[in-house]
Amino acid sequence: MTQAEKGDPENGREKEKEREQRGVKRPIVPAAIPEPGQEQIQSDYIVVIHPGSSTLRIGRATDTHPAAIPHVIARRHKQPGQTTYCDRWLLREGLNKQEGNEQRQNGLKMVDQAIWSKKMSNGARRIPVLPEQVRAYNKQMRPAVLDHNSGVKWTNTAHHPEYLVGEEALYVNPADCYNIHYPIRRGQLNLHSRPGGSLTAVLTDLETIWSHVIQKVLEIQLKDLKYYRCILLIPDIYNRQHVKEMVNMILTKIGFSGVIVHQESVCAAFGSGLGSACVVDVGDQKTSVCCVEDGISHRNTRLCLAYGGSDVTRCLFWLMQRAGFPYRECQLSNTLDGLLLQQLKESYTHLDQDISGVQDHEFQVRHPDAPALLYQFRLGDEKLQASMALFYPATFGITGQKMTFLQHRSQGDAEDPHDEHYLLATQSKQDQSAKAAADRKALPKPTLYDDSRGQGLEVSDRGHAQDPELGPSQNDSLASGNDADDSPAAMFSRKTAMSQFEGKALGLDKAILHSIDCCASDDTKKKMYGSILVVGGGLKFHKAQQFLQHRILNKMPPSFRRVVENVEVITRPKDTDPRLLAWKGGAVLACLDTTQELWVYQHEWQRFGVRMLRERAAFVW
Question: So what's the pLDDT on residue 592?
């Protein structure tokens, strides 16, 4: 038998290069793919999936970059005459109420106070901008017609496709008979009472999107997925029922032979090459903070904030409207206008306090069936105010919603009889008492910062707060994994703290401080202050690194300010796009020798179900 027939990797790579030079595509299934259960597998046959609220990143573990697809699907109406439904993107519940407008104005006052209290780096004061002058200039501006045809077209639906995915779904004509669904919102499955919001419907949307991308983008036939394995990245604060359903879909519906489930924060640390870090993931819909040490996400430190880059985009739109934004037809409910506003945010917003005064800007509007228009306008501090809203989230004007979440309490699962409730029930009373006392002694009392009053709230003896009410998509109480043995007094302490904090959101810097403060030891805290890793696309602003570093230094506890040698904020490790770090970490995971014992195989899942996640997950399930 020749070396090539034996599956020699070097020989295989040479053959592949020769085929590429001749223009021949790689064969889907080579002769030497190991069967599931064998020790080694080629990384080229592992698919890494990182599902986000707005973008799906997916690719082979050997790919340099993943494919980035808008995580959205358009489904054709089953019956004529149905009302068209579209999931919200920039809009959300709790806006446009009187209370929200007042909160937004108060948040903006705090932002302005922070801006004007700091001098520029040369010691000079900022140049004051009169809003009336900017507004008067912008209101008199009229667009210039660049071309009578914008060159942008609606997606062709003449053949009446049952569904459209990604970019095609975004450019579906609203007059066509399609509903638009985003299956993931704020890091969780997008469950709601409106059309397409049931668990079955959302999982079907996920299966359709992922299967479509695997076939069309990765060029893998679904019938060949029995030769492939999958690494699925999940949020740090995850819903067990949702993860279970996604794993079941991957193994039994889509047809992968095996799967590994791992958390985004740990994979981000892998992707950046850091052993320990406080991982700050600012996404489009949510922001999560978690301390990772030696490949382990500390459960006590996990924190999720229900705001992200899309909220900054909406805030910028509101500020531009106040400044007389000349594109007066712009609507947050219009998907194409949303894409334009996101582009303006990425182009203009910053966290550089040396940029002062009024600047001239221009942008183009290119919509289907309309001329291409060029707008010119002026902006002052609006570009800094919008990005600073991440640190003063009252500026978002969101009311009536829970904005801060901790790890869900496990409610148990009928398919997993030996879960933590079983283990707790079978422990002796002495063991429970000793464990509770040890936990209380080991963990300090952290501070949960109230952004509206600038003061701290003590949370509990265990370093956790509890949110007494959750929306239907979260359906669990939030608490630490060991809360079942808490005394009634400790539980009351948490509820009291969170009742004072209800409806408010932590600013990004205060969330980081709270997460680090929940670490078990001072040594771990010092490590985290020295390595704050920012990933995701929601904080890609000019000078964001220096701005965040300055705020952490100013607000960290004085006791640590004396002992921490250096507070370091890392935004582009190895000059890598921070949006890709978690996916790259998943690809690194696929190549590790220790990964082999983490696989959950299809036949095991069919026999044992969710119990396999408890046995094989790289984190405490």
Answer: 87
CATH number at residue 508: 3.30.420.40
**Is 320 found in the same domain as 281?**
no
pLDDT of residue 430: 64
Domain around 290: 274-308+403-576
Tokens for 89, please give them: 């993107």
Give the other-Cβ count within 10 Å of 126's Cβ: 18
Specify whether the CB–CB gap between 495 and 421 falls below 8 A.
Answer: no
- Neighbour-count burial for 533-553, b at 16+ CB within 10 Å, e otherwise: bbbbbbbbbebbbebbbbbbe
pLDDT, one tens digit per residue, over 514-541 is: 999 999 999 999 999 999 999 999 999 9
What is the structure's pLDDT at 621? Answer: 84
Report yes or no on 571 lying in a domain: yes
Residue 453 has pLDDT above 60, yes or no: no
Tell me the mean pLDDT in the region 364-383: 96
Q: How many helices (H) and strands (E) does the chain have?
A: 21, 23
Domain co-membership, 431 together with 316: no
Model pLDDT, residue 583: 97
CATH number of the domain to which 124 belongs: 3.90.640.10
Strands (E), 348-441: 359-365, 372-379, 404-405
pLDDT at residue 400 tops 90: no
- For the chain, first and last CA: distance in Å? 46
Helix (H) or strand (E) holding 248: helix 240-248
**Gyration radius from the chain CA atoms:** 26
- Residue 366, classified by CB atoms within 10 Å of its CB into exposed (0-12), middle (13-18) or buried (19+), is middle
Q: What mean pLDDT comes out for the span 87-95? A: 90
Kindly give the residue spans of alpha helices, DSSP state H, lying in 303-454: 309-322, 335-348, 382-388, 420-426, 429-442
* Rounded average pLDDT over 271-300: 95
For residue 310, the model assigns a pLDDT of 97
- Dihedral sign, Cα of residue 183, residue 168, residue 254, residue 262: negative
User: Could you tell me which residues are beta bridge partners of residue 75?
Assistant: 163, 179
How far is Cα of residue 439 from the mean position of the Cα atoms in its chain?
Answer: 30
Answer yes or no: are the C-beta atoms of 267 and 579 closer than 8 Å: no
Residue labelled with tokens 């401080």:
513
Q: How far is CA 321 from the centre of its chain?
A: 28
Asked if 462 contacts 440 with a C-beta cutoff of 8 angstroms, the reply is yes
The predicted pLDDT at position 429 comes to: 63
> Would you state the structure tokens that stand for residue 399, as one six-digit string?
């009311």
Max CA separation in the chain (angstroms): 82
Say yes or no: 299 and 323 in one domain: no
Q: Are residues 423 and 564 in the same domain?
A: yes
Is 59 among the domain residues? no
Q: Are 99 and 399 in contact (CB under 8 A)?
A: yes
Least confident of 267-281, 456-470, 564-578: 456-470
Torsion of CA 385, 391, 394, 396, to 10 degrees: 60
* Percentage with pLDDT > 70 across the chain: 81
What lies within 8 Å, CB to CB, of 180 at 6+ separation is 72, 73, 74, 85, 86, 87, 169, 172, 335
